[in-house]
Amino acid sequence: MALMVEWSRSDVDSDGVRLAVFRAVADTAQQTALDQSRGDESRPVAILVHGWPDSHYLWTHVAPILAATCDVYAYDTRGYGDSDRPKTTEDYRLDRLARDLFAVADAVSPDRPVHVIGHDWGGIQTWEAVCTPGAEHRIASYVSVSGPNLDYADVWLKAQWRPPSARGVRDYFTQQACLLYARFFKIPRVSDALVGAALSPRRWTRFVARTEKVDPTQIVLAPTFRQDVRSGLRYYRANLSRRRRPPHARPTSVPVLELINTRDVALRPPLFSQTDRFAQTSERRVSHTGHWLPLAHPEKLAADALEFIHAHHSERRTPASGAQQ
């Protein structure tokens, strides 16, 4: 089991939304070393982005491993944890979530590109950021864990019918069946009430532990979990409706590593097969693991991420022209 982590908090403003940002420190000795190395451009800056229904607590076991060689930050995305919770669904669109990531990157690493690891909706919103024109000036690399690019996924879904094949149709319906819960989450008020009532911290811990086949003590939840469960449903409503978000597959020159989990309860491996059509530099690593890799197998995730981060780390400073936010 990885070390537990201490978090040092600061706040970042993103278009009037206050985001709680946390710097990871494993222990007192490491804090002293980090303070001495602050500004050391040989150390990559890594930003960790969680999904639903988590918070920065998701990275409790991963962060201290990364912190041995990186400056590590995580933040509660809008609607979660200690960050602000905007009231309207439109406030949770992917373009606004991408601007949040850029705001955090500018705050914690104004002079150097950052490396990003995103999980679940944290991965989906990071895809939006890395596909923003000029993103390569602010994001040096991206590790995606169970967080597909929604536009690339749409390309894959359509491809299963052009022309249809037995395998393609099977993969299509298997993936759609795995995402039935997402259709329910898009129903206002009904899903708020039922999900809020059903998902207590204890029940969620049991579910994840059973699904991932791990000790329940490995599952770390925020004190705000009950609020986060309901608030996070706005992500589904803001971004999974064609009317709200027409598909638009865009390329990216940011190096991308996708960690594919064959036992993922929500996202099947074929869904990620279109990435190399759009990402100039992309890698895929497949393992017999589940959706909550940061909690169940933090050492594996950290090892894969560190190898990729250091392979793409550069000590160059950020050019004057950055991403178009």
Automatic annotation (TrEMBL):
<dbReference type="InterPro" id="IPR029058">
    <property type="entry name" value="AB_hydrolase_fold"/>
</dbReference>
<dbReference type="Pfam" id="PF00561">
    <property type="entry name" value="Abhydrolase_1"/>
</dbReference>
<dbReference type="InterPro" id="IPR000073">
    <property type="entry name" value="AB_hydrolase_1"/>
</dbReference>
<dbReference type="InterPro" id="IPR000639">
    <property type="entry name" value="Epox_hydrolase-like"/>
</dbReference>
<keyword id="KW-0378">Hydrolase</keyword>
<feature type="domain" description="AB hydrolase-1">
    <location>
        <begin position="47"/>
        <end position="295"/>
    </location>
</feature>
<dbReference type="GO" id="GO:0016787">
    <property type="term" value="F:hydrolase activity"/>
</dbReference>
<protein>
    <submittedName>
        <fullName>Alpha/beta fold hydrolase</fullName>
    </submittedName>
</protein>
